């Protein structure tokens, strides 16, 4: 049974989970949108598109451990908020995608988003686990998983609703590429707005190591 006191009396835990929810909502749909863009606009096959999209998770895998270690030395709020800011910049750039955007630009920006994701994810997890007593570790870990799942579902729901409203039931053929691009831009703009809100949620969690009222 969930102990609501963890949220009610624990700003660090509450805002860290809120930041996680927003971050996953703003980033999970990136791969979906870019995969469609690369295949329909850039006319790439699934394999080539997949290889290009690997740039983001590779960067995440490389830098996440270092970000976690950094958050042991520096206040997690600072590292995680910096990561959210970088992610915001990457999403903002993606919101200007067009037919002339180069593959290299997409790869570089994907690397940027992946780096921001790495800086946010591990330190945010550190912040969540550090804000509760050991007896609540299981609940805290489960809550992170819940926020991740809800965020991922929200991200895909946003993409699907935008596509349904802008594109409708027509196929993504060359004559509808401009409409498709409009939908992609709108979706990325929404993700950018979410990420901007997430910056404040991440920042206002407080200093985990200095706040004496974090643990219930």
TrEMBL record:
Pfam families listed in its UniProt record: MFS_1 (PF07690)
InterPro entries, sorted: MFS, MFS_dom, MFS_trans_sf
Superkingdom, natural source: Archaea
Protein localization: Membrane
Domain Major facilitator superfamily (MFS) profile: 1-216
Keyword Glycoprotein belongs to the record: no
GO molecular function: transmembrane transporter activity
One Gene Ontology cellular component annotation held by this UniProt entry: membrane
Keywords annotated in UniProt: Membrane, Transmembrane, Transmembrane helix, Transport
Topology of this chain in the membrane: Multi-pass membrane protein
Segments traversing the membrane: 21-41, 47-66, 78-97, 103-120, 153-172, 178-204
Name of the molecule in the record: Major Facilitator Superfamily protein
